[in-house]
Design goal:
Helix content: 25-40%
Distance between the termini: 20 Å
Number of strands: 11
Number of helices: 10
Structural class: alpha+beta
Largest sheet: 6 strands, antiparallel
């Protein structure tokens, strides 16, 4: 089995599956493309094709928050209720840092009553949802529980504190300073996204378009689009001197001394004494991965417009490859 097939084992599910893949480890480099952006008669996917990042969005939201912290408009200890005073009183104990590292315990908005393929909710609807909750899953700060709700709220906080539309703020304060040309916030039904990869599912061994459902129009938890080329530039930016990584990559140690392996928007894992940074994304019809390590001289990006895939398999396959002595 060649290295590409080994690394993508369990994530390539169909011969027509659309994807863009990049891997570099020291002098080994792999670039692969396959499939089309939407159905069989549309454009071929290329390295500039824009995919919905799903939860890979979160580390960009984290950088937006860090930008406000660097400008002294927020701190990690800022109380969320100071920004949204109409939220329930339990928000008196929740800080920006709790939202970023998934220790807030706030409820999952995915539990809202909904019609799966009906009206889409928007980020502002999450405030209404939270205003009608009475407690958290656990005492704030004591446990790690991954929260899409938290990152939607963080996106709204960026807008409210900056006084600028989230898409515009991230473009000016994150994307542009990193030289990203294909990366943007998508307001579904409004934003024009050229060279867009639409999501697909497999039905009776055929790819069918399934790009949207009830919670795929929110921004903070997964609404950014980008390309493989831009994400490669982004890794270059994160590896160089920049205003974000010092905070972004601080792992969270819980009160019981357990490392949650999540920083302030990026996962941080130890592999034989050295860190690998990564994040996966998963939404209807789309799955994503970004991964890098300065110590191992390693990076990987995988973007596919096919749903039902766990891109953590690539991370696990890379670690297995490293542990065989390929350091």
């Amino acid at each position: 089995m060649d290295l590409f097939n080994r690394l993508t084992q369990n994530v390539i599910k169909h011969q027509d599956q659309g994807y863009a893949f990049y891997f570099k480890h020291k002098d080994t480099e792999i670039k692969k493309l396959n499939g089309v952006t939407k159905e069989v008669d549309s454009s071929l996917i290329n390295f500039d094709t824009r995919f919905r990042l799903a939860s890979v969005t979160k580390h960009f939201i984290g950088c937006g928050i860090i930008s406000l912290i660097n400008d002294h408009k927020l701190s990690l200890d800022t109380c969320v209720k100071d920004i949204y005073p109409n939220l329930p009183n339990y928000f008196n104990n929740i800080t920006i840092k709790n939202l970023l590292n998934h220790t807030s315990g706030i409820y999952d908005y995915e539990d809202m009553p909904h019609d799966t393929y009906g009206k889409q909710i928007k980020d502002d609807d999450i405030i209404t949802f939270l205003e009608n909750t009475e407690k958290t899953y656990f005492e704030v700060g004591t446990t790690y529980k991954y929260s899409n709700t938290a990152y939607i709220l963080l996106g709204l906080i960026i807008q409210k504190v900056s006084g600028i539309n989230l898409g515009k703020y991230l473009k000016e304060h994150v994307f542009d300073i990193a030289g990203l040309k294909d990366t943007l916030v998508n307001y579904e039904g409004i934003t024009q996204i050229d060279n867009r990869a639409y999501g697909h599912l497999i039905d009776d061994d055929k790819l069918i378009v399934r790009d949207q459902y009830w919670c795929s129009a929110t921004i903070g938890d997964g609404g950014i689009y980008s390309s493989l080329n831009d994400l490669n530039k982004w890794i270059d930016f994160l590896l160089a001197d920049n205003p974000f990584t010092e905070l972004l990559l601080i792992p969270n140690i819980l009160p019981n001394n357990v490392n949650s392996e999540y920083g302030l928007g990026m996962r941080v894992i130890d592999v034989d004494g050295h860190n690998i940074y990564y994040h996966c994304g998963d939404t209807i019809g789309t799955n994503t991965l970004i991964l890098y390590s300065p110590y191992y001289n390693l990076r990987a990006v995988f973007l596919t417009n096919l749903g039902g895939i766990d891109t953590a398999h690539i991370k696990n396959n890379i670690i297995e490859y490293l542990k065989e002595g390929n350091y």
